[in-house]
């Protein structure tokens, strides 16, 4: 008799109390949803300056009737009540906030979702983000939280969740980078409008985005150094990001001239071994993934096809989930000693149908 | 200290085994998802002739890695292993299938999602569906499963889940129909393409649907008699359905010339009293709902505005959830003696952001 | 042998020189396109403060390679070189600008596209637009430019082009208003995002508009007094405007309880007589129009259906064309003594396919 | 004083009578529109088996009121009345039809839009299209009609209009191929749903296409041999086509590891020289094009960016225009001795705004 795929048969003996900082944006909303369905981690406090003292539904109308919390002003958060923190502040803001939280003595897990703790080398910040890092000492201890390629998350106190493009491209290229052969990956990837956040801008103006594809930061996206840090310098990346006319999800291809003829089975074995124990990566050989099946899920979908020395690998993920919130919860689960996918699978809703 | 809104603190002592008949379509997929996240009802068997012996992910790719079941051929289902049945067959097919299931002795709850058991009067079928009903005797016992307006669901053995438009329009007009004043409701409502099902057709051809609104069955939609059956003959309905350029959700307005000047507070009290105990209806006074916050949720959102004797009520719901699958699970929950919203709230994913 | 539908066999002996004021927005872009294809009226000067001295393609990238003009700063326009003016300024700006142009002695046709000269009664401005009109004397002379219902356009010096919703609703209801029977029209209409203009706002933020329908100004839209001015006080209007998830076009229904049973043929005769000589209205009996066929055209599509005393009339138009720019060119053509549809028909491109 | 960019000041002394075969599809509709606005070529006859004797508006509703023709049954076409033929039949059908037309003595220009006369080598047909060519003798005389790279169109009697992807990719790579250096181009390109034609299919089912990107024929698209025929064997092509969630337009990138460091100015000079006299190619240096500005136009937009030896070139075009109908009219114009862009520029409508 078949069993439900992911039953949580044990009633959790303890539920951790989680704080979400800057919870009024899209990533914040995604975190609130995930925690609401999580069996062992519950939203305790969620902050927003703009929506302070208003119900969560004021910023996230679809959550009305589902989540009872009201937003707390950032200054009024009681860190002592919290077991862990998820920080969904924008780039440049987390690096201002997190040092103070630590100085105030908070010693639970902190998972940051911005770029502010992703780089071991402080010199990246002035070069790529136009700012010096105010707490470079924290960078050495912070762990880059790509769960499929890090063993250090469980023991870390501060984890930096990777960027959305960086997640997809790194998961795509890492099994190849492991082969210790220099290669160049030509990546074209398109992202949905939710990647630009909840504040209107010309990049997300409906008449300009509907039916449009718009390349931007061609060969100059700030996720490039992040990917290089993980993959190593023997991988050259030629990356064209573009915006696509949809709300959620990143879809991309990596086209590679492999140094020698690629045997399809060999390539498959590289990927299958790399992700054998990875519950949030779904692999397919001899076909590239579509975007839609990955959207609304915590998965990064990967697939590949070869022809002689030509190798194409495709990837698809939800920028707000595997590219942000669900990956942060993967990290949270590891830091709390929970199963990696706790609260992440079998959502009652798909994004399309 | 705030508590998570919907914690299921008790580990359910028993999980009911559910069969989903015809589970390869969009409604079937929605049912599988809901059951996968349900604390006390688990998918046991799901049938599909087309996908027999294939994994659920073959029909529903986003469920790959989340649900382990394979489809069973309809002829091979073992009803003895099942505690309840959800029948997602198309109109005209359920009326062929359900009588045989009952004759074979299945005595658990059956929730049908087609139109085949919605009407007490067998004469509706030849008039509106071009077919005589093969089992008119079942119609007397079948309960029309609009949970907000029926007390008989809990004790029923066969429940007919309402149509998607009928759900929205009936929930919109029932608090007014209760006032026992004859009135005419002018309803215009637009539905997403998932309402047409998973089989391609000219109605869902992307170039013809993108950027388009297309009215159809104007003043002649088959949900009209269904609504009239619930509301009574003192409500006249002038209904224009149309297809809109999106995948999920129905949005509509009911415009009414009320027989006398309407006091906004009075109207609000009608709705608030009608839905005080209804966990799947969200009301707003003095504003009409948008579509997006209802999509991906089990809610029907209602809102109203008045100006003299003019009364406008708006509604929004997800056609695959409150218009089909989540309403069926509301009914299932009642029939199994579970809390009405078990498995329905706080999904980890919103459809938009 | 069939002939091309709309050949301009005569080489026009004179081409009028047209100025477009505030030509960097969506309506301005639509005007530039129409003039570029016009056989007897040519764009001479187009102004924009933001894009002064830049090519037209800087604001309207698809026109690069098709239109050679550069934008002129508003202060540098040489009115003496112009035969007619099209003013595409926003509401509240035209009323500041037009009086000065007249004082400077410009005596050619002026067609304004804002609300600033639509109302004969100056009291409308403080009530609906929160501003007193600075040149109320001009209102008496300005002609409301709905070409199908005005004989005065040809002789006017200042014409106010109707609003987009007002165009659709007035064309829909005017043949009924002619019957001199009081009635109430319940109108629900949805508009595309280009109606909000080229400046990003929360109303046009892609993640919030994609897959969404959002009602706004329910029972309070500023086009109501405009419609009433044309139709008369025996027509009551109950109007729900909403934004839809597309870029161009308005689609709506008018649902009416007609005082007596409506004979379909009688209704058809009302419409067919009213629009017999109207080249920019396309009528269909016994069916409501879809949106897409009207988009990209200068037409307002109308269609109707009756059932007893219930009468439903649907309408569809392109908000930037029949709702703005092409209607302005209809007016321009009349004022210049040209055929009404000069430059408007048989465009080489449809918006969908 | 500026002049209108593209005035046709001379009244054409003669208008050619054009026949469009198989005019009920999307490409047929695009051809009808272009001819309706053409100053020197007029639609005379348009055929359709399905819509025979029905007005053009039955297949193309937006053309109602703009084009007066009715469809002629294919068997009833009077070739003697026609000066030129545009054949919009599907692949495999033209090769059956065209030989008979020639045998019947038609000696005017024929422009075919299918793949059936694109290849000089008959062996391509059994390999790539699963069919032997019934008239291989015609292939030697047929001219591949990419106007920017062919001098033979003017004198040809049978021209094969290139495929949509092939047009974009060839225009993108040809200036590089001219450098006589072997290189590999890694191309990822996405197309709109109109490229799949007017018949509904699973590839164009709205719920599956909305918000989705779906790769197909990865490394195996049938435009590959077409591109190779033009560019030569020293160019290797690694091509990933994908379907995108919009109706019109193709957007793509070509990523190239150039054999030596590329100087941006040198690359620019290659493109600018190649397309100096090409009115339907718009070039931009140091930026890649967006899709939307090309849609609704007869242009292929190109742009490039370099970084060391990395070279990225982007392209965008309307698959129904530069990828089919407007390119066919470019060819028609050359064959009739007209200006290449006659009837193609300054349309009164943009597709977006």
Features:
21% strand; Rossmann fold; alpha/beta; six-stranded parallel sheet; homotetramer
Number of helices of chain A: 10
What is the CA–CA distance across the termini of chain A?
28 Å
Q: Quick one: CATH superfamily of the largest domain in chain A?
A: NAD(P)-binding Rossmann-like Domain
Low-confidence stretches of chain A: 1-12
Which two protein chains have the largest interface (Cβ within 8 Å of the partner's Cβ), and how many residues from each?
Answer: C-D, 62 and 63 residues
- Give the biggest beta sheet of chain A: 7 strands, mixed
Based on the structure given, which CATH architecture of the largest domain in chain A is correct? Answer: 3-Layer(aba) Sandwich
What does the oligomeric state look like here?
homotetramer
Task: Specify Rg of chain A, calculated over alpha carbons.
Answer: 20 Å
Which CATH top level class of the largest domain in chain A fits? Answer: Alpha Beta
**What structural category characterises the helix and strand content of chain A?**
alpha/beta
Percent strand of chain A: 15-25%
């Amino acid at each position: 008799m078949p069993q439900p795929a992911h039953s949580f048969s044990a009633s959790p003996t303890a539920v951790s109390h989680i704080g979400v900082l800057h919870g009024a944006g899209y990533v914040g909303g995604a975190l609130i949803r995930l925690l609401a369905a999580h069996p062992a981690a519950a939203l305790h406090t969620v902050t927003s300056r703009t929506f302070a003292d208003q119900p969560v539904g004021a910023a996230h109308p679809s959550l009305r009737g589902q989540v009872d919390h009201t937003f707390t002003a950032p200054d009024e958060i009681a860190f002592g009540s919290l077991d862990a923190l998820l920080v969904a502040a924008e780039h440049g803001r987390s690096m201002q906030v997190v040092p103070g939280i630590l100085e105030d003595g908070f010693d639970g897990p902190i998972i940051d979702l911005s770029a502010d703790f992703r780089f071991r080398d402080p010199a990246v910040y002035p070069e790529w983000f136009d700012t010096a890092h105010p707490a470079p000492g924290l960078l050495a201890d912070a762990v880059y939280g790509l769960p499929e390629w890090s063993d250090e998350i469980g023991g870390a106190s501060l984890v930096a969740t990777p960027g959305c493009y960086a997640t997809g491209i790194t998961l795509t290229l890492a099994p190849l980078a492991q082969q210790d052969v220099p290669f160049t990956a030509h990546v074209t990837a398109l992202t949905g409008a939710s990647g630009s956040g909840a504040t209107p801008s010309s990049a997300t103006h409906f008449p300009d985005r509907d039916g449009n594809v718009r390349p931007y930061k061609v060969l100059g996206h700030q996720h490039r150094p992040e990917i290089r840090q993980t993959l190593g310098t023997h991988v050259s990346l030629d990356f064209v990001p573009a915006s696509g006319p949809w709300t959620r999800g990143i879809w991309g291809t990596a086209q590679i001239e492999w140094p020698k003829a690629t045997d399809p089975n060999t390539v498959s074995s590289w990927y299958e071994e790399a992700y054998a124990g990875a519950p949030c990566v779904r692999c397919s050989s001899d076909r590239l993934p579509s975007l839609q099946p990955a959207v609304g899920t915590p998965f990064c979908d990967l697939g590949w096809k070869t022809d002689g020395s030509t190798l194409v690998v495709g990837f698809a993920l939800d920028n707000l989930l595997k590219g942000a919130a669900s990956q942060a919860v993967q990290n949270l689960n590891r830091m709390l000693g929970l199963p990696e996918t706790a609260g992440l699978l079998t959502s009652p809703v798909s994004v399309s149908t």
